[in-house]
Amino acid sequence: MAKLGDWIDPQPHGIHVKPAGVWIDPSRPMPRALVTHGHADHARGGHEAVWATPETLAIMEARYGPQAGHPVAYGEAMLMGEVAVRFVPAGHVLGSAQIALEYRGETIVVSGDYKRRADPTCAPFEPVKCDVFITEATFGLPVFRHPETGDEIDKLTTALHANPDRCVLVGAYALGKAQRVIAELRARGFDDPIYIHGALQRLCDLYIEHGVALGELRPATEASKAELKGRIVIAPPGALNDRWSRRLPDPITAMASGWMRIRQRAVQRGVELPLILSDHADWDELTDTLTEIAPREVWVTHGREEALVHWCMTRQIKARALAL
Ligand SMILES: [Zn+2]
Ligand SMILES: [Zn+2]
Questions:
Q1: Could you tell me the distance, in angstroms and rounded to a whole number, from the CA of residue 42 to the centre of ligand 2?
Q2: Which ligand neighbours the alpha carbon of 92 most closely?
Q3: Would you state the pLDDT for residue 194?
Q4: Is residue 283 a contact partner of residue 144, using CB atoms and an 8 Å limit?
Q5: Distance 37 CA to ligand 2 centre (A)
Q6: Could you tell me the distance, in angstroms and rounded to a whole number, from the CA of residue 312 to the centre of ligand 2?
Q7: pLDDT average, residue stretch 80-88
Q8: What are the tens digits of pLDDT across the range 297-323?
Q9: Three-state secondary structure call for residue 177
């Protein structure tokens, strides 16, 4: 009998689904690509044909220009050769999808990046029963346990109220994290205008066009120093300590990232207010997901593979690290 899942071939530059003649998240231009989500390590420009959710295609077009795109809605059934393909919400960023593949009675789920906690900016992760579950392991160590989102967000408003003459400058990645910080603030009743760096404008607009309410956003560059006192300003992490931030009134520097769990990283970046806020599953979310899905095999990629493979072994789940 053939080996489980031997019809797909995980390579360093993408996952080749052989009987469908297609690659998942290829890092170089391919004739046919399936793309899980818009982050640059998954979505590249230059493919001859791309299948992705409408949101992911819109993100790719915003970043790379027009795409030869085939929009695929969540749950829509699609046949590629003999392989049934379905995009399922991954809960990671707007439009993010797991890709479920079914071929000759075997189901493989390529999860891309995912998380399990609530996120007002995207559809929640849906577990899919499968034979092989390919999981990321960005935070695949027991030390990574993300705190409650609301508690982290409250740190921003607390700092703001305690320092009415300063502003709070939040470093957040342009795709996903920035919009999530804004939407979480709104969900907790923060109605003041939020000021954004110009590099975030296009993706914030795209989220709004796709129905994610972000409230009143203003361009930070057009505001005076006085206007920015007592305000929240969001910028890409690279702008936190550069010339751009000198326009701001004595900013309290915050950074929203799962890596803020590591104190040293916050110190290195000169972050006064670390917010542990991640779009990736933490250790408990990873292990709970594997328990819930109970696949015959787990293939681990994208991060700290060893600890998660070991965890699977101790629970009699066959697992291996994809050394990509
Ligand atoms: Zn991602
Ligand atoms: Zn990723």
A1: 6
A2: 1
A3: 98
A4: yes
A5: 9
A6: 22
A7: 98
A8: 999 998 889 999 999 999 999 999 997
A9: helix
248 CA → ligand 2 middle, Å: 32
Question: Two tokens at 220?
Answer: 């930070």
Residue 324 has pLDDT above 70, yes or no: no
Q: 155 CA distance to ligand 2 centroid (A)?
A: 27
Q: Quote the pLDDT of residue 323.
A: 74
- Amino acid 322 reads L
Distance 80 CA to ligand 1 centre (A): 25
Tell me the CA–centroid distance for residue 186 and ligand 1, in Å. 23
pLDDT tens digits, one per residue of 136-159: 999 999 999 999 999 999 999 999
DSSP state of 109: E
Taking the centre of ligand 2 as the mean of its atom positions, its distance from the CA of residue 138, in whole angstroms, is: 8
Burial 99-112 (b: 16+ CB within 10 A, else e): bbbbbeebbbbbbb
Mean pLDDT over 265-278 rounds to 94
The residues, ordered by sequence, that sit 6+ positions from 221 with a Cβ below 8 Å of its Cβ are 197, 198, 247
- The answer to whether 22 and 79 have CB atoms below 8 angstroms apart is no
Ligand lying closest to the C-alpha of residue 59: 1
For 60, phi and psi rounded to 5 degrees? -65, -40
How far, in Å, is the centroid of ligand 2 from the Cα of 174? 14
Dihedral of alpha carbons 48, 71, 138, 129, sign? negative
Whether the model clears a pTM of 0.90, i.e. scores above it, the answer is: yes
